[in-house]
Design brief:
alpha/beta; 2 domains; five-stranded mixed sheet; four-stranded mixed sheet; 20 helices; 13% strand; globular
């Protein structure tokens, strides 16, 4: 089976090597099945990218539609894989699924060595389980701090570099805007509901404060420490002061709703909110910017943004593994990733594409996220493997109780540490 030479490639050399990988497979044409939740116009764009590979190899791709709900997708994947279903060759996967399904996927470490070397390290780390690269990144996602540039200029404030600076600036400008007549104005909106999004927010608060990653790459439960306690206490103090009491029920869209109506100074949210905020009917069009999330202020922490994104994995039950790996390599490579960036403003996982002038001209959002991805952190799905969903649920529950005033941060993290220890047992 065709292989790319080891080492780092970039630019035209990387593209040439990937083209060789696409065309170096056996000539016998096969049909492979690709399970994906992509729908609508995004699916049409995806088909166009895949058509390039089909024409180059003579193979055909059958798309297997999946439910819109990612939870339903994951459930169906688990059923198929547990049954050893050979009818699906490739699965499009959420970033947190790799560790939970790793035993059912092919190790792509060798054929994808070039892609791994050219990608943001945290993304490859998130898809590597016990030394096996089980999924290749298609495009990525990470949240940023959205800020009202016009209001910061109006009040002579800078973009906050630490959470402490954010808290002070938010309180000052919130008070001034309310005094000027906007009684609905808030300093900071984010996602405080008890769900996966709160795990992401809280991981950022803790990691940026030097409090670790809840569970470390070696499997150690680290969440109960003074820096993590301090980070959660700081966030709890936002509720009802610079953040509305209702933030404890906010998910992404509730936060964006407050922000986009012009009623918040700062917002933590994912890249999708950028284009919507600059839409033709948006009250804040051209009035805001984005920056990395703040740091905790200690020497042990720095800005941290939780990694999101979608990947592609090859089923170990596939009857056409060579062709499936070929398509995975193509989709994760520079040609397909550039097409996704140009067409759908997908954020590439290959660092070099953030310096591509054509992408910058067509989709200005893309280069703005490069610094954010360089500071991104994965959720602890790789070390906790199949237990990740339960780990995350316990984590967000402990955080939500703290934010709601049901026990202190110290008490809730101590209990969480015990719960995670019991869940881990002798090993994840």
């Amino acid at each position: 089976m065709g292989r790319i030479s080891a080492g780092r490639l970039d630019g035209r050399a990387f593209g040439a090597a990937m083209a060789l990988a696409v065309t170096a497979w056996p000539a016998a044409a096969v049909e492979i099945s690709y399970a994906s939740g992509v729908v609508g116009t995004a699916m049409e764009s995806f088909r166009e990218k895949v058509r390039v590979w089909e024409e180059a190899t003579g193979n055909a791709v059958n798309f297997v539609p999946m439910p819109a709900s990612t939870s339903d997708q994951f459930g169906q994947y688990r059923l198929w894989l547990a049954a050893g279903n050979a009818d699906i060759d490739l699965y499009q996967t959420d970033i947190i699924w790799a560790a939970q399904l790793a035993d059912q996927f092919v190790d792509l470490s060798e054929p994808a060595a070039e892609i791994a070397a050219a990608s943001f390290p945290a993304i490859i780390e998130s898809q590597t389980v016990d030394g096996r690269l089980v999924a290749l990144p298609l495009y990525t996602d990470a949240p940023a701090l959205y800020y009202r540039a016009d209001l910061l200029e109006k009040y002579g404030a800078g973009v906050p570099q630490t959470w402490e600076e954010l808290t002070g600036t938010a309180a000052r400008i919130q008070e001034a805007e309310r005094a000027a007549g906007n009684g609905d104005f808030w300093g900071f909106v984010w996602q405080g509901n008890a769900y996966e999004g709160l795990s992401c927010n809280a991981l950022e608060w803790i990691a940026s404060s030097g409090g670790g990653h809840v569970v470390e790459p070696d499997g150690t439960v680290s969440v109960n420490n003074p820096a993590a306690v301090e980070a959660l206490e700081r966030a709890a103090a936002w509720v009802g002061t610079i953040s509305p009491p209702g933030v404890l029920a906010y998910q992404e869209e509730e936060a964006r709703g407050v922000w986009q109506t012009g009623n918040a100074l700062f917002m933590r949210n994912w890249p999708y909110a950028y284009a919507l905020g600059n839409g033709p009917d948006s009250p804040i069009k051209d009035l805001f910017g984005v920056a990395p999330l703040p740091a905790g202020g200690s020497d042990d922490g720095g800005p941290a943004a939780t990694l999101g994104g979608w990947n592609v994995a090859v089923s170990k039950y596939s009857r056409h593994q060579e062709a499936a790996i070929s398509l995975a390599l193509y989709l994760a490579g520079p040609e397909a990733q550039k097409a996704g960036a140009l067409g759908e403003a997908h954020l590439p996982t290959l660092a070099a594409l953030y310096d591509d002038p054509e992408i910058a001209a067509a989709q200005p959002i893309v280069p703005r996220w490069k610094e954010i991805f360089q500071q991104a952190v994965p959720r602890p799905s790789a070390p906790t493997k199949g237990a990740y969903n339960e780990v995350s649920a316990k984590f967000w529950s402990a955080v939500h109780e703290t934010l709601s005033g049901q026990g202190s941060a110290a008490e809730n993290l101590e209990l969480l540490e015990l719960d995670l220890g019991d869940l881990k047992g002798r090993g994840w």
